[in-house]
Amino acid sequence: MSEDNSTIVVRLLEIYRALIAQNEEEEGVPVEAYKKIDVDALPDVLDRTSWKGSATDVAGRLASNLILKHALPNANHRTAVALIQFYVRRLNPNFSMPETSIEVDPETYDWREWVNEYINESKRLLTVRRKNVLFKHLYRFGARTLERKHAVEIDLTAYELDMYPSEAKIVYAEQHEDLWIEFVEEAVERAGYPDLKETPGLSKAEFAEKIRNLD
Q1: I need a labelling partner for 93 at 20 to 30 A (CA). Which of 21, 54, 155, 210 fits?
Q2: Which InterPro entries does the record associate with it (predicted)?
Q3: pLDDT tens-place string over residues 193-205
Q4: Pairing relation of β-strands 152-155 and 145-148?
């Protein structure tokens, strides 16, 4: 693993573990991971990311690739959102992610509506990306709406299903990336820093150096 990748991965794991600890504190019970953390997959997240473009472009791509890799169980999307804030703050220390969660009751938190729209669409794209062939057959047998866990409904008429799995992986990965860039753009607008959409992003080397300078 390169020095820059190692620096970023270590900080990413710190963010992830802090989120898990926060979740355990809020819910009062230990989080039971359904699979192990795939640390070896995290450098690939960084290597697959295009670090060119605006701050919102790079942050969105980072979040998308982290989610697609699914290396961090139980807090995949939350870690991606936290990573966005961490990355953008290296460019603008005053940036703070707009409120993303809401307290449902003293022991339960959920995504705010504006965030939930992105999270749910992200989950739909991930599911269609993996199961387009199965969904194509279900569609032919008359299915139009499916429901995945957490009551996320998938309208099969809204997605192109007739393609090879290899093609679906590419097409829906691109759509997923666009979705998360859009999320970051809305987040910086809501936070009052729309200029970040035009601010050049940090390269991987620059991001890693910023992290090293924090220690």
Answers
A1: 21
A2: DUF8172
A3: 999 999 999 999 9
A4: antiparallel
